[in-house]
Structure formats: structure tokens, C-alpha cells
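Hi Y.,

Following your request, here is the sequence exactly as I used it, all 200 residues.
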Amino acid sequence: MHRSRLLALSSLAFLVSSSASANLLVNATFESDLSGWSEGGSPRWSSLDAAGSVLSGSVEVGTAGAVGQCIPVSTPELQVEASVLVPEGQSQLVGTPGVKLLYYTAADCTLVPVIPGRSVVLAPLSTTGWEEIGDSITVPNGAVSAYVSLTFFYLLDGEAAPFVAYFDDVSVVPEPGVAALWALAGMFAASGRRQPGARR
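Below is the corresponding structure, written out as C-alpha cells. Let me know if you'd prefer a different format.
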């Protein structure tokens, strides 16, 4: 195989592997506290852990509080995932827990979210254990940052009864741009064409 084709393959593999491991969130596994997350209301760190580890924990959010943090966004697609535990037996008819992203043109998520719309990944109203949720979302044009919230969504008008949910292993990972992948594929294809007079 020509050296140029090897270089193209290496570039493609590096791009994909780098994208797959680049979680934009800090303290996404809540090992011992809520450091790195802004707190609204009264969220709490919990010793409950999605993997059952005694050395880590999760965050308890709900009608009493939520957490969030600002991340940079530079790709058109993001993969959002989390492990969620929603204890059964809670009376809740007006909302549901989930992950929300609001988009900004300022790098530090300040001022108003001038980018219209939001992205939401909802969790079940109850789980029998830890469940994984996730979705691929499209970043609106012009956004340079996003505020990621683990929160409770009021979907209907009304007073919400006390409700809690636990989040762990949260990730927001940039997906490689389609244009970049096509460009690399073109490089790979071009490197495989024989030039006139070239030896086999």
C-alpha cells in the first residue's frame, strides 16, 4: 500500500478516535462531588453510582434543583448520552427529567441564548434500574457554546409534586463533520489512483 494511502487512513482513524473520546464535560461521572457544575436550587451529590462503584457517585436533580455547565461547540453534530435512575412510585404528571442544551454566540454562555431553539434528551418517568439515554443532536448555525443542564422539564402547567432523578456518566461528544470525513475519503481514493508511468 502506498505511503500516502497509509497517511490518509491514519488521519481518518485519528479523527474518529479523537472525536469518540472527547467528552466536553468535566466531572461527568460525579466521582466525589459536583465540582465543575453550576448549581441551581438544591441539587445534591449522591453515593448511588451507575456502575455500582463505592468510589464514585451521581447527582440528584429534580423539582428541587438542577446542575449545568458551559461547553464549547465547534462541530455540527453532538452525541449526548447519560445514565439515569428514576425511582419508581413518584407521583409526577406535569414533567420529566432530561438533558437540555441552550446555545449561545458568546464563548462563555453569557447574555441571552441568541441562537433560537434548544436540544432536549428526555429520560423515562420511572426506571427499574439505571438506564442509558442518548441522542445525536444538530448544533444550530452560529453557536460557539452550549449550556448543558441536567434538569426537570415542566411539560404541562401545574404544580409539580416533589420529584427526583439521578444522573451519572454524562457525555457530550462532538461527532466528526460529514464534510471532513468526505474530504478524507477523497484523499484516500485519490492516493490509490496510479499516476501515469508509475510502477505497480
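The beta strands are 38-41, 44-46, 58-62, 65-72, 77-85, 95-104, 118-122, 131-138, 145-154, 164-175.

Thanks again,
Q.
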